Amino acid sequence: MHDTRKIDVMENIHDENDRIAAHVNEGLTARGVFAINLMGAPGAGKTTVIRRLIESLRDLAPCVIEGDIEGDIDARELRALGVDAFQINTFGACHLDAPLVHNAVGNMTLGDSRLLFIENVGNLVCPAEFSIGEHARLLVSSVTEGSDKPYKYPLAFERTDLVLLNKTDLLPHLDFDEDFFMKGLRALNREAPVIRVSGKSGEGFAEAAAWIRASLSPLNPRP
Ligand SMILES: Nc1nc2c(ncn2[C@@H]2O[C@H](COP(=O)(O)OP(=O)(O)OP(=O)(O)O)[C@@H](O)[C@H]2O)c(=O)[nH]1
Ligand SMILES: [Mg+2]
């Protein structure tokens, strides 16, 4: 009996979140802004990836929403590059949700921006459960985390549109089994491209930026 009630509450939370996420998505689409929800474990390289992608996508005037439990270290790093970065602090919650992003977008200028990066809280579990109004999901998985991650955290890998396999510069020092990683990923997600990148050397980011350009092109032109 108690279990049944608990499931109802969770369904209501997800329904309400999805309703607001759809509203956020419609608003961004109408303004010609393509939103990418970046997910990954703490330290996987999400902010580094955003920094690298911004270098190649400056003409889209990218802006950023940073999700962290506390602090604004990543937002300040991006602002130093001249990027509009809005900080959300969840104060304990392990993921962003649609109401938080709705509020953030309402407080941003967006201006000529055609691209919005949303860095989710570093976590491979909860962020994957919540839509936040994004047009695409990008999972940063670094080789230092080990090749078993798709098997242990399936939802994050199942629900992503693109995987950036980061920190490949460190491969010579690790026993990362790429075949095992790909087998686990493909059992969950047959579609998402996997691009090997290095935030340190910049390798792979031209391809990642091209994927973003191709993905946002069908978006309605700015009115
Ligand atoms: N060697 C190497 N280090 C990297 C690479 N990408 C990121 N790093 C380092 O990894 C650390 C974490 O990178 P961040 O970009 O801050 O990771 P994050 O996922 O944003 O971290 P949180 O926001 O704390 O979850 C930093 O010290 C980066 O310099 C890479 O490709 N190679
Ligand atoms: Mg970060």
Task: Please outline what is shown here.
This protein is α/β, with parallel strands linked by helices.
Describe the protein's architecture and organization:
By secondary structure, the chain is of the alpha/beta class. The protein has one domain: Rossmann fold. It contains eight helices and seven strands; from the N terminus they run H-E-H-E-H-E-H-E-E-H-H-E-H-E-H. The protein has helices spanning 2-30, 46-56, 73-79, 98-106, 149-152, 154-158, 178-188, 205-216, and strands at 34-40, 63-68, 85-89, 115-119, 136-142, 162-166, 194-196. It starts with a helix and ends in a 7-residue tail after the last helix. The structure holds guanosine-5'-triphosphate and magnesium ion (MG). Guanosine-5'-triphosphate (GTP) binds at residues 40, 42-48, 74, 122, 166-167, 169-170, 198-200.
Features:
single chain; 223 residues; alpha/beta; Rossmann fold; 7-stranded parallel β-sheet; 39% helix; globular; binds guanosine-5'-triphosphate; binds magnesium ion
